Hints:
Low-confidence stretches: none
Structural class: alpha/beta
CATH class: Alpha Beta
Number of helices: 6
CATH topology: Rossmann fold
Oligomer: single chain
Distance between the termini: 30 Å
Number of strands: 5
Amino acid sequence: MTRCAVLVIDDEIPYTGVLREILASYGLDVLVAYHSGQALGLLDGVRPNLIMLDMMMPGMDGLTLLRRLRQQSALKDTPVIMVSANVVHTDREAALSAGADAFLSKPFSAKELRAALRPFVDVPDTSELEKGPYASP
């Protein structure tokens, strides 16, 4: 069985480290890019099953990158979960209008993350994760 790969694109190094651990605990392969240029370089040779994309990054922001990805035939159908620390309704609308498949507000719990991932990749049931370090009460 082929493992699913998730590309996390976010400039916050501590956040990406924790997210990498959580996603790996779900049995997912995780790639990380810390800015849009690095992500575009990775995407030249890698086709992830899912992209988690931060909305606010220096240089090219997440919305601009998402619009670029949706113009590429190889990536136009790759699911993208837009992530943002902003919790304003207009950000969610802008992300979905730009082509995001889902939106998650930071900070989020492991339970919220699982719910966001579930339509796109296989993740374990909560009962399987209860023994792990990121178990939700």
